[in-house]
Write a structure and sequence with these properties.
alpha/beta, Rossmann fold, SIR2/SIRT2 'Small Domain', 6-stranded parallel sheet, 3-stranded antiparallel sheet, binds nicotinamide-adenine-dinucleotide, binds zinc ion
Length: about 250
């Protein structure tokens, strides 16, 4: 299933960077944006998760995020998330860059992680920037900051907003320095995350894609692993464990 070329790279690699997207959480039951579930009460998700939607109709915006949070309450990491925790042991310089906001990598136990788009379980004040781990149940009213009274919002990067500069630089650095780069369960259309695989390739990395479908990265990949991440990653982890212990 895995080529000898990939196995040789993984046996020798010390610097590995992984980028994950919504696809890795699909097997945990978290809907992706671009699949068949990309609608919420007939609103397009991509139109709701925007800074403009928050400003225009905070009530509707919060109903949507409240629904997303509730949907996450009983969700658990899957074998793909757990396999990536093991990657921390296999590679000395390892970084997991995720576009997901669902907290599942952290719940699985990943510690070397950059949450490029934030974390939906946290709130941030629109005025004083105070961060709180969410307790708000904004179904009935829009939550406000306990410190200053201003509106709070989920601590995620919305469409139309810039990413945290420091986190982005950390991700770009890891992409440009790594020997092997994995792009897992991401459709490669949301920038600037979508440029990371190309940045790694331009700097000499071996590019591996794990996805059920074709993406803009596929033709540039050195190895294309087609199938569910929750099945492929545990198999890969087992093989890495074996070849590294030889
Ligand atoms: P996307 O929805 O655009 O694409 C998902 C990709 O995953 C597709 O290419 C699909 O073919 C692939 N996929 C689906 N199931 C898979 C599986 N079991 N194994 C492997 N691949 C699978 O997701 P994206 O590229 O992450 O971009 C969406 C944006 O929306 C991101 O910015 C992200 O922050 C956000 N988002 C996050 C979550 C989450 O936190 N779980 C969920 C939806 C969207
Ligand atoms: Zn405040």
């Amino acid at each position: 299933m895995f080529t000898n070329k990939l196995l040789a790279r993984l046996r020798d690699a010390t610097t590995v960077t992984v980028l994950t997207g919504a696809g890795i959480s699909a097997e945990s039951g978290v809907p992706t944006f671009r699949g068949k579930d990309g609608l919420w009460q007939n609103h397009k998700v991509e139109e709701l998760a925007t800074i403009a939607a928050f400003q225009k109709n905070p009530q509707l915006f919060w109903q949507f995020y409240s629904w997303r949070r509730k949907a996450l309450r009983d969700v658990k990491p899957n074998l793909g998330h757990y396999a990536l925790v093991d990657f921390e042991r296999y590679f000395k310089d390892y970084l997991l860059v995720t576009q997901n906001v669902d907290n599942l990598h952290i719940l699985a136990g990943s510690t070397k992680i950059v949450e490029l788009h934030g974390n939906i379980l946290r709130d941030r004040c629109t005025k004083c920037n105070a961060i709180t781990v969410t307790a708000a149940d904004p179904d009935s009213q829009i939550p406000t900051c306990k410190k200053c009274g201003a509106l709070v919002r989920p601590d995620v990067v919305l469409f139309g907003e810039n990413l945290n500069e420091i986190l982005l630089r950390k991700a770009q650095h890891a992409a440009s320095e790594c020997e092997v780069f994995f792009s897992i369960g991401t459709s490669g259309v949301v920038e600037p995350a979508a440029s990371l695989p190309f940045l790694s390739k331009a700097n000499g990395a071996f590019l591996v894609e794990i996805n059920e479908e074709e993406t803009p990265f596929s033709v540039h990949s050195n190895e294309m692993l087609r199938g569910p991440a929750g099945k492929i990653l545990p198999q890969l982890a087992m093989v890495i464990e074996k070849i590294q212990s030889r």
